[in-house]
Request: fold
Amino acid sequence: MKRVNKVICLLLTIFALSLPGLVLGAEYNVTQSMDFTGPYAVVMKPVDAAAKVIYAWWNETVGSKLGIKLIHKPYETRYDPSVVASLWPGILTGDKPIAHAGLGGPDLAALMKRLPKDKVPMMMSTGAAGFMWAPNQWIFLFRPTYTHEGSAFFKWAHKKFKKGKPLKIALVSSQGSPMYVDFVNGTKKYAEATEWLEIVGVEWVDLKPISLLSEMRRLSRKKPDILYIPGNTAHALSSIKAQKELGIHIPILMASHSGIQMCALASGDMKLLEGHYDAYACDPAIDMNVPGARIYEEYRIKMGIKTKWVLMGCQSAAQALVICRAVERAAAKVGAENITGEAMYKAMYEKPFTEEEMLGLTHRLEYTKESPFPQKGLKVRITTVKNGKQVLATKEWMPVLDIPKW
Reply:
């Protein structure tokens, strides 16, 4: 009887293989840079957990129907470009990834110029910088530059607070990082092209300032309506502390990596951020009714993951989801068994990724070869702290404005 069963199984396998278009199981590696021991170790648990959940969900609900399994392979890079560069040749030859998920600037520094030759697209979850704004890249971001994200907030704030008068902003940043200098350059360029936006001051500070009391005093005399501080949590929290010492309140706009959730984590006090804002082109992870959040919660419990849904996890989930959706398109184009990094690259330009496809984690994404981030139809979420709780400042996604290239 056992021999008969083996023969039957063999015949069924041969029959299945003879069916056109049927794939019993194609497996592909998706590698990812992580930082469990470096400067961003404190937020790696949600980044890692969200990626694991999205790939598990996709493999079960979509990949199983396509005959495809995605294998998520994280690598410890310590947020260090030299580590990324040293690991990459082994990753390339050993894993043969069809895509790589980058973590931040070190991945760009190490891989940006290599990827076109290696034919591996890299998806990022961070905002972009002006120096990345170039055509024909093999890096993809679902968020635009931080200046683009800021522009959507400034337009909203102008209508809300100034009613026809110019919106006056001041910036706090550091020359210790090219990205932090880029924030200022991009915002200056945007203000020059915008009649209703005026920059009244810029303060350059240390990466980790001890006190910003003098800087806040100088800026307050120029009467800005908004302080734009997208650098790091130390800049934002030191500015808030200095304002309290001076007895003033100038609303601060922060970025996702230095925003409300990250500052609350760093300070241990959400109430400290009362009346301040952040803005970014992804869901802020405060509404569990968003489809992506519901999926995360379901699979988190199923997989025994303890890490709750937060913004850094949301960004990681959106990053993984774009990769998964590109796999679907590549499979439809070249077949489930023939997906390569180049097929993934071409799939990114095939058609826009809808908000429904992105499970509500981002708005519509339309890629062109003009830049590594979408320039059409991008929108941001704006949040603030009210009565000690992070809430949406406006229920609508706010449109990103056109900005001159700098």
Notes: The longest strand covers residues 26-34. The chain has two domains: 23-144+286-375, 146-280+381-399. Residues 216 and 309 are 34 Å apart (CA to CA).
